[in-house]
Design goal:
Elements: E1 2-7, H1 11-27, E2 32-37, H2 40-48, E3 55-59, H3 67-75, E4 82-87, H4 93-96, E5 103-106, H5 111-125, E6 130-135, E7 138-144, E8 157-161, E9 167-172, E10 178-185, E11 189-192
Parallel strand pairs: 1-2, 1-3, 3-4, 4-5
Antiparallel strand pairs: 6-7, 6-11, 8-9, 9-10
Helix pairs in contact: 1-5
């Protein structure tokens, strides 16, 4: 599940941006959750309570601690969560790059820009590239894999049981035809990534 936190003190923008993220992720067929916060304090409290996020969408100009200050503080503890700055000002562009954000988007945010950023973040930062197939105690190594955030099975990787009860791992071409038989595993088996 791709979990997005949106933090902005402008309630109308917060709701519109959260709704836009949700629509784009549904269009991309990505299982997701959007959590919205009107202050850095609220976001921090959620994170301290154990809520995990894949992407933080932070407004820069907010009362109290701004988005960049929070991002610098946050990066000291966590280097894995993606950060997207959403702002109406270009004044902090150079300062903000110190926390390695995935992008800056200027308000009003354009649909296609946000769609590209979300797709890039999922592809580059939140998609395992391999799975390990384990049969009994023997690990049969990594097999190519696609995005686990998608609801539907990936069209080019298919697991099925063979006539003898073995598990077949087929790699399919773009037309859905078998391009190669990647592996045959006797039962019991399990996948991990």
């Amino acid at each position: 599940m791709y979990h997005v936190a949106v933090c902005d003190d402008e309630n109308i923008f917060l709701e519109d941006f959260g709704r836009m993220c949700g629509k784009i992720l549904r269009e991309m067929d990505v299982r997701h959750q959007i959590s919205m916060f009107s202050s850095i304090r609220g976001l921090r409290e959620a994170m301290e309570a154990g809520e995990r996020f894949d992407l933080l969408c932070l407004d820069i100009l907010m009362p109290g601690k701004n988005g960049i200050e929070f991002a610098y503080e946050f990066r000291q503890k966590n280097d894995e969560i993606s950060i997207l700055f959403i702002t109406s000002s270009t004044d902090f562009l150079l300062e903000g790059y110190g926390v390695r954000p995935i992008q800056y988007l200027l308000k009003p945010v354009k649909w296609e820009e946000l769609r590209r950023v979300l797709a890039d973040d999922i592809r580059l930062n939140h998609t395992p590239t391999t799975v390990n197939v384990t049969v009994g105690k023997k690990n049969h190594g990594p097999a190519a894999f696609r995005n686990p955030l998608c609801r539907e099975p990936q069209p080019w990787l298919r697991l099925c049981t063979g006539g003898s009860g073995a598990v077949l791992l087929d790699v399919l071409d773009a037309g859905g035809e078998n391009a190669s038989l990647a592996a045959v595993f006797p039962l019991p088996w399990q996948l991990s990534h």
